[in-house]
Amino acid sequence: MKELRITDSVTKIKGIGEKTEKSLNKLAIFTVSDLIRHYPRGYDAFEPPIPISSIREGEKAAIEASVITSPLVKQVRNLKIISIRVKDASGSLVLSWFNMPFLKNRLMSGYHYIFRGKAVYKNGVLVIEQPDIYTREEYQRKMNILQPLYPLTDGITNNLLTKAIRTALDEVELNNEYLPKSILKEYKLMSSKNALLELHFPKDKELLSEARRRLIFDEFFQFTLALSYLKESKKEWTNNFVLEERQECLDYEKNLPYQLTGAQKRAWDEIKKDIKSGHTMNRLIQGDVGSGKTVLAALSLLLAAVNGYQGSLMVPTEVLARQHFETINNEFLKYGIRTALLTGSMTAASKRDVYEKIKNGEVQIIIGTHALIQEKVEYQKLALVVTDEQHRFGVRQREMLSGKGEHPHVLVMSATPIPRTLAIILYGDLDISLVDELPVGRLPIKNCVVNTGYRSTAYRFIGKQIEEGRQAYIICPMVEESEVIEAENVIEYTEKIKEALPHAAVEYLHGKMKAQEKNDIMEHFSRGDIQILVSTTVVEVGVNVPNATVMMIENAERFGLAQLHQLRGRVGRGKHQSYCILVCGREGKDIKKRLEIMNQSNDGFYIAGEDLKLRGPGDMFGIRQSGDMEFKLGDIYQDAKVLMEANEAAARLSKEELEEAFLKSPELKMKIIEFKGGTL
Ligand code: ADP
Ligand code: MG
Questions:
Q1: Is the pLDDT of residue 679 over 70?
Q2: Is the CB of 287 within 6 Å of ligand 1?
Q3: Mean pLDDT of 64-78
Q4: Are residues 469 and 395 in the same domain?
Q5: Which atom of ligand 1 is nearest to the CA of 264?
Q6: Which of 545, 567, 601 is the last residue of a domain?
Q7: What gap in Å lies between CA 628 and CA 562, rounded to an integer?
Q8: Structural domain of residue 590, as residue ranges?
Q9: Which atom of ligand 1 lies nearest, measured to the CA of 261?
Q10: Which ligand is nearest to the CA of 541?
Q11: Are residues 248 and 372 in the same domain?
């Protein structure tokens, strides 16, 4: 009998003390189970040594070479640097190490080793810094082994995690195979235990790929099974909120500065039909960025309010919550409807005030972030809940929001371009309305992919757009300068822009700023007082400033295409011609090819499809397209086949098999209970 249980605290593992525990907590690792579910983000493979002449900058390589000079030790500031020159049949190269004086004796002229490290340019010549040193025998043993590389945090090294996970896997009882043999056989799945072992410490690439497939199958299986339970339970709900369209909605629609598109009208009709049917509406509005989903949320909320009920709208960021609040609050006042904003950053006192108003029905519309699903929020008569940018939430959060009422109508909105066959599975408990039409008169965004040499041209262009009264976003991946990651940062970039365009009003925005500051900046940008907004991806979701016409993205190579598409969606929202400038911080054929896809089309479906083709089935660790969904390993696009198989398998499980599965896997049972927010 093994000692360790998966529910034990990580401190039960040898070598993990209180201090390490604290650091592990930052990675959301509390229990042994969390630890063994902390999956590698990639693997380091020991490839055979290559000739010195074929080493390339920035790449990790192993060379087999002889030392041809005596070690040279130099003191540079507080660093002691040892360097030697080595050679093989193809050429020679300098290797250097910092603060490792003890190496001197191992590196005598004439010795022969395998050195492995990353090549960098130092004063114009290629050197390998801090290479690891192996004898041929040592290296041979390492070859073909894939070393896991884990997501890390301060105080946690890869070595520590590797050891801890190894120990945990050795000492914990892993008999959690919950799938019946017939399913394992039919879908050719590796056992659950082996999958976990092979994912962390793969014997070879094939086994790794099978292990991943099994674990992804599990993720999808649990998800679709939970969803089917949810759907089943919803069937029995009766609905007390029969909502009829009223004059106010017609009026609101008539007063819009535009006509609804055909697709919007269709979706609106579907919503109206649902909510007056006597059944609970469970509907997904799927529409690309800029297709005009917000107005559908607004109309539905208004309809709930004028029928005498409450409606709430949950969004993933404060910036977006505030923006929706500003618009809706203004527009609804004339119908006598009061709206409240509820976000995490509000003071305790103002939160209490809002809770009170929600509870006694003083406000009818409540707009906010996750704060809306806090325990303290009690509604008076909640008839409709809307989640915007649903891909940023889990099903559980959506259900928690609706759990605040007596089976209120549910409307969720998402821009994720999921093909219909998959959407039916992933949103199995929802009916789907497609908003597959952009408002008329929109000019397609003009795109270009450039390198950093193009910046001055881009700045001149932005300057001109500003003169014409337009505004621009510039996105940088980082907030401030970093020692480890080489990428543009918002703070320094803002200075750069101020210099290049001294007459422009430039400000920056990033997630680490105080909520109040963020709100002020966003408001000023919305009003046009700020002309150039240098920002991190905090503006990625939902933000709507139709007067902004330029989206310039620095280090575009660091973003996934889905994210780039979302960012680009911040422009092209008004009648003016808009532009997207993707600046590549690094050269590379693959990078260029990927970004070219953005150049080819403004259509989210097309982009997702092309991205998939480019990555191919072997590419396990590319930038995930659907990183927002609730899966750790599975990617709905790349693993679409596994998703369908898992869905099919879940549907086929007999009642007895299910009970058996719940017995064997408490994790599975928990997942379903969590989903439903109650009992099985
Ligand atoms: P998304 O679907 O990305 O949430 P929004 O609802 O924010 O898009 O709409 C984007 C912009 O398009 C907004 O400025 C909105 O006012 C405008 N808009 C929405 N519907 C129409 C329409 N039918 N005609 C013209 N403009 C529209
Ligand atoms: Mg939106």
A1: no
A2: yes
A3: 90
A4: no
A5: 23
A6: 601
A7: 10
A8: 446-601
A9: 23
A10: 2
A11: yes
